[in-house]
Specification:
By secondary structure, this protein is of the alpha/beta class. Strands 1-2-4-3-5-6-12-13 form an 8-stranded mixed sheet, with helices on both faces. The model has no long low-confidence stretch (mean pLDDT about 95). Helix content is about 35%, strand content about 25%. Helix 1 packs across helix 10 and helix 2 crosses helix 3. Helix 1 links the parallel strand 3 and strand 4. It is globular.
């Protein structure tokens, strides 16, 4: 079920999949939204209560003045407080969400009982011919769905088509994110995040698409070796492994959570 809360005048939307189980905060990747964890919530059943926000600037959540790690983490803490979840919870994140989950665990170790990182790197540097450049050509709104999808290019069918929103006044459609916000968010991710990854000591799992261009194998191996209490789940896929091998991801996450 979808709910909202207000943070500094902004609306933060979130999905609470319910159930009597232990709470699991699930943070989606860039250009996505909380509903992406529907399959995970189904796979975990009543053992875990999955709570998945539309992170700032995504889905039905309002745009934000910045897309820093501190901002994303503050939103997550506000959501936990809003839900009355004062005891440590399990936190899972994919890509952007995985990076945010690492920073949440490091900044608020008393709030995080376990950490699941799905293919989020800790060394993120600018690359030539940045693959996110397609965002410059995208449109936030258009009179028709077709125009938005045409401008969305390579992510149209994967990220955009199922999530388009009608404008409130009926004049057209909008993306589930603003392209400029996503560019700002990507830029704010760049840098060295080893301190955040190593800054918590709770049990952790790294789910890795072994062909990922975002998280090279050498870096994944170092992340597991350098952080005590970290398990490794390699899957035969690329960075988009939650979409290409959801069953593999669900099984790896379920096994890790069951052992806590």
């Amino acid at each position: 079920m979808r709910h909202t809360l207000t943070i500094d005048g902004r609306t933060l939307s979130y999905r609470d999949f319910g159930g009597p189980g232990r709470p699991l905060l699930a943070l989606h990747g860039g250009m996505s939204e909380g509903i992406a964890f529907t399959g995970l919530a189904d796979a975990l059943g009543e053992r875990w209560r999955v709570v998945a926000p539309d992170q700032r600037g995504h889905g039905d959540s309002d745009r934000a003045p910045d897309y820093s790690r501190a901002g994303y983490v503050a939103d997550a803490v506000a959501l936990l407080d809003h839900l009355g979840l004062r005891a440590p919870v399990a936190v899972l994140g994919y890509s952007l969400g995985g990076l945010n989950a690492c920073h949440l665990a490091a900044a608020h170790p008393g709030r995080v009982a376990a950490l699941v990182n799905i293919d989020a790197a800790v060394e993120i540097q600018p690359t030539g011919g940045d693959w996110m450049g397609f965002l410059h050509a995208m449109r936030y709104t258009a009179p028709t769905r077709e125009e938005l999808l045409e401008a969305a290019g390579p992510v149209g069918s994967r990220f955009v088509e199922p999530a388009l929103r009608p404008l409130p006044d009926g004049s057209g459609w909008r993306l589930p994110f603003h392209p400029q916000d996503m560019l700002d968010s990507v830029e704010s991710c760049r840098g060295d995040h080893w301190d955040a990854w190593l800054g918590s000591d709770c049990p952790a799992l790294l789910v890795h698409g072994t062909h990922s261009r975002s998280l090279p194998r050498a870096q994944a191996d170092a992340m597991v070796t350098r952080r005590p209490g970290t398990s490794y789940a390699p899957l035969d896929g690329d960075h988009f492994v939650p979409f290409t091998d959801p069953r593999g991801v669900h099984e790896a996450v379920g096994k890790f959570l069951a052992a806590l």
